[in-house]
Write a structure and sequence with these properties.
Distance between the termini: 29 Å
Pfam families: NUDIX
Shape: globular
Protein name: NUDIX domain-containing protein
CATH architecture: Alpha-Beta Complex
Number of helices: 5
CATH class: Alpha Beta
Largest sheet: 8 strands, mixed
Domain Nudix hydrolase: 44-177
InterPro entries: NUDIX_hydrolase-like_dom_sf, NUDIX_hydrolase_dom
Protein backbone atom coordinates (compact mmCIF):
# COMPACT_ATOMS: atom_id res chain seq x y z
CA UNK A 1 0.00 0.00 0.00
CA UNK A 2 1.43 3.33 -0.98
CA UNK A 3 0.48 6.95 -0.35
CA UNK A 4 -2.22 6.60 -3.02
CA UNK A 5 -3.91 3.85 -1.00
CA UNK A 6 -4.09 6.10 2.05
CA UNK A 7 -5.39 8.94 -0.12
CA UNK A 8 -8.09 6.60 -1.48
CA UNK A 9 -9.12 5.73 2.09
CA UNK A 10 -9.22 9.42 3.00
CA UNK A 11 -11.17 10.35 -0.14
CA UNK A 12 -13.85 7.75 0.58
CA UNK A 13 -14.13 8.64 4.27
CA UNK A 14 -17.13 10.66 5.48
CA UNK A 15 -16.13 12.94 8.34
CA UNK A 16 -18.44 13.59 11.28
CA UNK A 17 -18.13 17.37 11.54
CA UNK A 18 -16.43 20.47 10.14
CA UNK A 19 -13.38 20.13 12.40
CA UNK A 20 -12.75 16.56 11.32
CA UNK A 21 -13.38 17.53 7.69
CA UNK A 22 -10.67 20.19 7.96
CA UNK A 23 -8.25 17.71 9.53
CA UNK A 24 -8.98 15.15 6.82
CA UNK A 25 -8.11 17.70 4.14
CA UNK A 26 -4.95 18.71 6.03
CA UNK A 27 -3.89 15.05 6.20
CA UNK A 28 -4.44 14.68 2.44
CA UNK A 29 -2.35 17.80 1.83
CA UNK A 30 0.37 16.53 4.16
CA UNK A 31 0.49 13.11 2.47
CA UNK A 32 0.55 14.67 -1.01
CA UNK A 33 3.38 17.04 -0.02
CA UNK A 34 5.58 14.56 1.85
CA UNK A 35 6.79 11.36 0.16
CA UNK A 36 8.30 10.33 3.51
CA UNK A 37 5.03 10.85 5.43
CA UNK A 38 5.13 7.32 6.94
CA UNK A 39 8.62 7.77 8.42
CA UNK A 40 9.12 9.07 11.93
CA UNK A 41 12.33 10.67 10.68
CA UNK A 42 10.15 13.33 9.04
CA UNK A 43 10.65 15.82 11.85
CA UNK A 44 7.62 18.05 11.25
CA UNK A 45 5.27 15.10 11.68
CA UNK A 46 4.23 11.73 10.31
CA UNK A 47 1.28 9.46 9.66
CA UNK A 48 0.31 7.24 12.59
CA UNK A 49 -2.42 4.62 12.97
CA UNK A 50 -4.55 3.57 15.91
CA UNK A 51 -7.44 1.37 16.91
CA UNK A 52 -10.60 2.34 18.80
CA UNK A 53 -11.61 -0.97 20.36
CA UNK A 54 -15.20 -1.40 21.53
CA UNK A 55 -16.90 -4.23 23.34
CA UNK A 56 -19.57 -6.18 21.48
CA UNK A 57 -22.34 -4.27 23.28
CA UNK A 58 -20.55 -0.93 22.63
CA UNK A 59 -20.67 -0.14 26.35
CA UNK A 60 -16.89 -0.23 26.88
CA UNK A 61 -13.73 0.91 25.11
CA UNK A 62 -10.24 -0.52 25.63
CA UNK A 63 -7.79 2.26 26.50
CA UNK A 64 -4.17 2.44 27.60
CA UNK A 65 -2.59 4.88 30.01
CA UNK A 66 0.30 6.18 27.93
CA UNK A 67 3.53 6.23 29.95
CA UNK A 68 5.25 9.23 28.26
CA UNK A 69 2.15 11.41 27.82
CA UNK A 70 0.58 10.32 31.14
CA UNK A 71 -2.93 10.24 29.67
CA UNK A 72 -5.45 7.65 28.54
CA UNK A 73 -5.60 7.00 24.79
CA UNK A 74 -6.54 4.33 22.29
CA UNK A 75 -3.61 2.08 21.27
CA UNK A 76 -1.69 3.23 18.24
CA UNK A 77 1.66 4.27 16.95
CA UNK A 78 4.13 5.09 14.21
CA UNK A 79 3.97 3.53 10.77
CA UNK A 80 7.77 3.33 10.58
CA UNK A 81 7.71 3.22 6.79
CA UNK A 82 4.69 0.91 6.46
CA UNK A 83 2.04 2.63 4.34
CA UNK A 84 -0.65 0.04 5.19
CA UNK A 85 -2.26 2.02 7.99
CA UNK A 86 -4.85 -0.68 8.77
CA UNK A 87 -2.12 -3.26 9.32
CA UNK A 88 -0.17 -0.78 11.46
CA UNK A 89 -3.28 -0.18 13.60
CA UNK A 90 -3.79 -3.95 14.05
CA UNK A 91 -0.14 -4.44 15.01
CA UNK A 92 -0.29 -1.60 17.54
CA UNK A 93 -3.49 -2.98 19.11
CA UNK A 94 -1.82 -6.38 19.56
CA UNK A 95 1.45 -4.94 20.90
CA UNK A 96 -0.09 -2.39 23.26
CA UNK A 97 -2.99 -4.39 24.69
CA UNK A 98 -2.11 -8.05 24.27
CA UNK A 99 -5.43 -8.71 22.51
CA UNK A 100 -5.24 -11.89 20.46
CA UNK A 101 -8.75 -11.81 19.06
CA UNK A 102 -10.41 -8.71 17.64
CA UNK A 103 -12.11 -7.80 14.40
CA UNK A 104 -12.54 -4.80 12.18
CA UNK A 105 -16.09 -3.49 12.66
CA UNK A 106 -16.38 -1.42 9.49
CA UNK A 107 -14.37 -1.11 6.31
CA UNK A 108 -12.41 2.08 6.02
CA UNK A 109 -11.53 4.82 8.44
CA UNK A 110 -13.42 5.40 11.70
CA UNK A 111 -11.85 8.75 12.60
CA UNK A 112 -8.94 11.04 11.73
CA UNK A 113 -7.08 13.43 13.95
CA UNK A 114 -4.06 15.72 13.89
CA UNK A 115 -2.45 16.37 17.24
CA UNK A 116 0.76 17.93 18.45
CA UNK A 117 3.19 15.68 20.30
CA UNK A 118 5.18 17.77 22.78
CA UNK A 119 8.95 17.89 22.63
CA UNK A 120 10.81 15.41 24.84
CA UNK A 121 14.42 14.44 25.47
CA UNK A 122 14.61 12.54 22.15
CA UNK A 123 12.30 14.41 19.77
CA UNK A 124 11.26 17.93 18.92
CA UNK A 125 7.57 18.80 19.01
CA UNK A 126 5.84 17.37 15.94
CA UNK A 127 2.43 16.38 14.58
CA UNK A 128 0.80 13.00 14.37
CA UNK A 129 -1.58 12.60 11.44
CA UNK A 130 -3.56 9.76 12.99
CA UNK A 131 -5.71 7.38 10.94
CA UNK A 132 -8.09 5.47 13.23
CA UNK A 133 -9.96 2.22 12.71
CA UNK A 134 -12.85 0.69 14.64
CA UNK A 135 -12.31 -2.76 16.13
CA UNK A 136 -14.42 -4.99 18.34
CA UNK A 137 -13.19 -7.42 20.99
CA UNK A 138 -14.58 -9.37 23.89
CA UNK A 139 -13.59 -7.87 27.27
CA UNK A 140 -12.81 -11.23 28.90
CA UNK A 141 -9.50 -11.58 27.06
CA UNK A 142 -6.26 -11.31 28.99
CA UNK A 143 -4.61 -7.92 28.60
CA UNK A 144 -0.89 -7.18 28.64
CA UNK A 145 0.70 -3.95 29.84
CA UNK A 146 3.81 -3.22 27.78
CA UNK A 147 6.64 -0.76 28.34
CA UNK A 148 4.71 2.06 26.62
CA UNK A 149 1.84 2.07 29.10
CA UNK A 150 1.12 2.31 32.80
CA UNK A 151 -2.19 0.46 32.49
CA UNK A 152 -4.54 -1.09 29.94
CA UNK A 153 -8.21 -1.61 30.72
CA UNK A 154 -11.78 -1.56 29.54
CA UNK A 155 -13.50 1.70 30.40
CA UNK A 156 -17.26 2.27 30.34
CA UNK A 157 -18.06 4.73 27.56
CA UNK A 158 -19.73 7.20 29.94
CA UNK A 159 -16.59 7.25 32.17
CA UNK A 160 -14.06 8.03 29.43
CA UNK A 161 -14.49 11.79 29.81
CA UNK A 162 -13.17 11.47 33.40
CA UNK A 163 -9.89 10.08 32.04
CA UNK A 164 -9.45 12.09 28.84
CA UNK A 165 -11.96 14.71 27.79
CA UNK A 166 -10.03 15.97 24.75
CA UNK A 167 -12.14 16.70 21.70
CA UNK A 168 -10.23 14.00 19.83
CA UNK A 169 -11.32 11.29 22.27
CA UNK A 170 -14.79 12.68 22.87
CA UNK A 171 -15.50 12.72 19.12
CA UNK A 172 -14.84 8.95 19.06
CA UNK A 173 -17.03 8.52 22.14
CA UNK A 174 -19.86 10.32 20.33
CA UNK A 175 -19.38 8.08 17.33
CA UNK A 176 -19.45 5.01 19.59
CA UNK A 177 -22.73 6.00 21.19
CA UNK A 178 -24.21 6.50 17.72
CA UNK A 179 -23.28 2.95 16.58
Amino acid sequence: MKRNSLLTLLNTYTTSDKTEQTMCQEIKDFVNSNPECFERTLLSGHVTASGWIVSEDRAQVLLMHHRKLDRWFQPGGHCDGDSDVLEVAKKEVEEETGLQSFKLVQEGIFDVDIHLIPANSKDQAHYHYDIRFLFEAHPDQELVINIESKDVRWIRVQEIQNLNDSESIMRMVRKTTAL
